[in-house]
């Protein structure tokens, strides 16, 4: 089959389409003929050599895909050949075929094309497992999402609105904020021109928000603590603003705050299957109702993966960038 190979750690130009061996199918896996895959920030880190695939995972990038099941491992019971599905992968999506444990596979949601279905597994599993399963974001609470126009952000806005939250977002341009509002965000904060702590306080009568979904890490840590309400929860999923910082911890006690973090890719297949089950139960119905829609910015042929990475690193996109084998 053909796959995108990271020929050496480096810039987008190291991504090259090459002929490689087909994946080996394990007993609990299905083989998917990939119709589409989507980019995630982590792919750019893997390309640069700073985010190696977990042990046993495919060396090729790609954390999600959609496509048709082509063959079944001998212990597979949930799926049959010909099923149209999408899947959460530990790697290997940038290819014509990929093998994946059956528990990480989801049906294509009703009303969504096979191509666009690839935009959901990674964002749905990340957002559901963090701010809903772990931070227990509930109806009537307020949520601040950093990077509202990201793949993660555009999904988080929609599902949080659907579940009855008041949603705040940060983004780096007025155009991005306008888009976030068009899909449900209540309050848009331009992080380049506004102080998000002051704006959050102003919009919440001085209280702060209940939950924050953060992709910045160190650079926002103190300001995130300062933006939380009593019993607030900060969930960190990314370190775009660095990994170490000094922080005044007093707010943790005074406001009874919880700080959590998690990475999806390094979870065990059993743990991922549990999340995928919860996503099927709680998120897929919202997509079927048309309340959560795919947000696809641009699709490239798989051979143009380098161009797609350049677009992601320029941060001009809103939502997901797809690759089509
Ligand atoms: N832990 C996990 O399991 C997990 C899983 C998936 C994703 N993630 C993380 O989630 C984040 C989003 O991922 P993605 O794939 O959706 O990437 P993406 O579409 O490339 O989004 C990156 C986002 O970061 C925003 N950003 C950059 N600097 C910012 C700042 N100072 N303040 C606020 N926002 C800022 C960008 O906003 P502007 O363009 O407006 O600057 C952009 O929306 C990444 O950090 C990724 O590593 C974590």
Automatic annotation (TrEMBL):
Source organism, top-level taxon: Eukaryota
Domain Enoyl reductase (ER): 10-323
GO function terms (MF aspect): NADPH binding; oxidoreductase activity, acting on NAD(P)H
Keyword annotations: NADP, Oxidoreductase
Short name of any one Pfam family annotated for the protein: ADH_N
Protein name: Quinone oxidoreductase PIG3-like
Gene3D superfamilies: Medium-chain alcohol dehydrogenases, catalytic domain (3.90.180.10), NAD(P)-binding Rossmann-like Domain (3.40.50.720)
């Amino acid at each position: 089959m053909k796959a995108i190979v990271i020929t050496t750690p480096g810039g987008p130009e190291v991504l090259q389409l090459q002929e490689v061996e087909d994946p080996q199918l394990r007993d609990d896996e299905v083989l998917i003929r990939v119709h589409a895959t989507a980019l995630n920030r982590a792919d750019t880190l893997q390309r640069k050599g700073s985010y190696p695939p977990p042990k046993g995972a495919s060396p090729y990038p790609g954390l999600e895909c959609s496509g048709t099941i082509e063959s079944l491992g001998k212990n597979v019971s949930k799926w049959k050949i010909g099923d149209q599905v999408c899947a959460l992968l530990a790697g290997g999506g940038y290819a014509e075929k990929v093998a994946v444990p059956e528990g990480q596979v989801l049906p294509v949601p009703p009303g969504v094309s096979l191509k666009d279905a690839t935009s959901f597994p990674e964002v749905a599993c990340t957002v559901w497992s963090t701010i809903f399963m772990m931070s227990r974001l509930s109806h009537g609470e307020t949520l601040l999402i950093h990077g509202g126009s990201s793949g993660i952000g555009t999904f988080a806005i929609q599902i949080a609105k659907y579940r009855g939250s008041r949603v705040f977002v940060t983004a780096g341009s007025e155009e991005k904020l306008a888009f976030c509002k068009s899909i449900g965000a209540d309050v848009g904060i331009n992080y380049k021109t506004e102080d998000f702590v002051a704006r959050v306080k102003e919009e919440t009568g001085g209280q702060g928000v209940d939950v924050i979904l953060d992709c910045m890490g160190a650079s926002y840590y103190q300001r995130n603590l300062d933006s939380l309400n009593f019993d607030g929860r900060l969930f960190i999923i990314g370190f775009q603003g660095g990994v170490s910082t000094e922080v005044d911890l007093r707010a943790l006690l005074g406001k009874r705050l919880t700080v959590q973090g998690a990475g999806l890719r390094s979870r065990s297949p059993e743990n991922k299957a549990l999340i995928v089950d919860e996503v099927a139960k709680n998120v897929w119905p919202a997509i079927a109702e048309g309340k959560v829609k795919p947000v696809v910015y641009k699709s490239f042929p798989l051979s143009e993966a380098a161009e797609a990475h350049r677009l992601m690193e320029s941060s001009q996109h809103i939502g997901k960038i797809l690759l089509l084998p």
